[in-house]
Hints:
Blueprint: H1 2-16, E1 19-20, H2 28-43, H3 49-72, E2 74-78, E3 83-87, H4 90-109, H5 113-122, H6 124-145
Helix pairs in contact: 2-6, 3-5, 3-6, 4-5
Amino acid sequence: MSSYLVVLIVMILLMLREKKVRPTRMWILPILLIGITCTSILSSDKLSPRSYMLYFICLTIGIGIGIWRGKLEKIRVHHERGIVTTQSSIAGVIVFLGILILRLLAVKWGKEHAVISLTNALMFIPLGSVCARRFIIYRRYKQLTG
C-alpha cells in the first residue's frame, strides 16, 4: 500500500508542474492506453452486449471528463523562449485521482464476471479522459501558435 501512495504522490507532483507542450509526443500515452485496454478486453472470457454498453458509457463519461479537464488546463505561451507550456489544475488532478481510486476499488470487489466487466469498462474512463484532454490541449496549442 505504501508503494501505491508513493506513486500517487509522484503522479500528483508531475501533474501539477508546468510542462512544455510537445505535439509530436503527446499521443504516445493515449496509444499505450488503447493497447492496454484492448489487451484487457480481449483477455476476458465473455463479451456480452451489456459489456459493450458499459464500455460505451464509460468511454462517453471519460471523454466528457477529458474535455472538462482540458478546459481547466492552464496553457501559456512564453514569447521570449518561443515555447508553449501547460499545467494541470487542482480540480483536474482530483478528478483523475477519483477515477483511479474507483478502478482500484472495483478490482478489490472480486473476480466475478460482472465485476471483471466493470473493471474493464472503468479502463475506458481514463482512456477517454486522456484522449479528449490531449485533443483539447492540441487544439489550444494550434490556436496559440497560429
